[in-house]
Specification:
56% helix, membrane, 72 residues, mainly alpha, 3 helices
Length: 72
């Protein structure tokens, strides 16, 4: 059975909004995938910029040690 095609008399704004919603429905997984990594990057960047985190990289007074758990 042939599909009936109707001419739509909608405004350009309505067609643009429907096209955007159709794109979001189609690319939902990719959008969430990007947002997950973007938010994770922002959080990681915020956490690593704090002074408490950077104290882990300060040199110890006893001299450089390659392995922190190594006993002499």
């Amino acid at each position: 059975m042939a599909r009936r095609v109707e001419t739509r008399n909608e405004s350009i704004l309505t067609r643009i909004v429907e096209a955007i919603f159709a794109f979001v429905r189609h690319a939902e997984f990719e959008i969430f995938f990007f947002l997950f990594f973007f938010i994770a990057y922002i959080l990681f960047k915020d956490i690593t910029s704090r002074p408490e985190y950077n104290q882990m990289f300060v040199k110890k007074p006893g001299g450089p040690e390659f392995w922190a758990f190594q006993k002499n």
